[in-house]
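hiii, so i know i said id send this last week but things got crazy w the move. better late than never?? heres the sequnce for the chain we talked about at the cafe, plus the structure i predicted for it. fair warning i was half asleep when i ran it
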Amino acid sequence: MRRVTVDLGAIAHNLQVIKDTAKGARIIAVVKSDAYGHGMVEVARLLARRGVWGFGLAELDEVERLRKAGLRGEWLLMAGVPRGLEEEAVALGAHVALLDPGQLAGLDRAGRRLRRRARVHIKVETGMGRFGLPPQEAFALLQQRGRWPNVRFSGLFTHLSSADDPSDPLTEAQLRALHGLIDRLRAAGIPVPMVHAANTAALFHFPQARHQAVRPGIGLYGGVPWPAGPDGRPRLRPAMALSARIASVKELPAGHPVGYSHTFTTSRPCRLAVLPVGYDDGYLRGLSNRGQVLIHGRRCPVVGNVCMKAVMVDVTHCPAAEVGSEAVLLGPQGSDAITPWELAEWAGTISYELLCLVGTRNPREFLRPQGEGGE
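okay and structure toks below
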């Protein structure tokens, strides 16, 4: 009755746009959180075939899932690892984001026991106020790097919190802090490991954030409304679609309440369709009386409160709508499309949240690029 379709061809297209923009930088493809709802294993297989350097992950079990699926490559645990799990991370060959210098002792012990050096990327706190070491602390740590002989400092990175808004001065300030640290390290003769700072937004908006590697996430999935090509159309293509079949159609008179708390009342005789999708399926309650769906290529408004397993749509102006007709809640139909950023705006959230929820809470199918079969 409902399904999510993931267009792997769109993800391949988006990766090529990103590669072209990255100008030779390594690609750390962020596939955490089930590839933002798009299917981590399938997406990682596609990206690995297209030569990404490695994958950005959040948890050890994500590394284990990819390894069990036969994938090989570099794994970056961007949120570090909990204390006590250092040995597991080193055994899996992961690069571990260092958020707390106190964890170096545990990583060093793990490297010694396993007879392989723990690989660490120092996260530098430059203004987001979340994870990482202040620049001065990162500098002092690298000055003393010999204290941890079983640790290899293989990366240095920061996270840019506001790069989606090029006019926000914080991004420039964050980059100045990072670049100041790099300059100090070089002046002191301290080797600078692989630097990466650019997320999707910074990759396109701040060329100076492109270093030896970039970390695209949402851009791989086409979940942003930019950048535009010469014709003004987005060059990145959304990869996810959500559709359902109409379960019920009924005629309502003027003045009839609709849904929980009757937040909508018909102002005229109304033809109402019910779709078997609701907030339990990731179609957020914030879309009540705000969302739109495509039926036979026409936009139909959501009316009343979104229910746990149902959403009501006014199809009065779409006479072809009937039980069994396809309704597209996210994605293209005909010459129109409900985009992730449009849906997010209606719901009062961001495309990241919607894609994660919709993609992981519904049956999912994959559309493969032409000439590529399954694995």
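btw The first strand starts at residue 2 and ends at 7. thought thatd interest u
miss u guys!!
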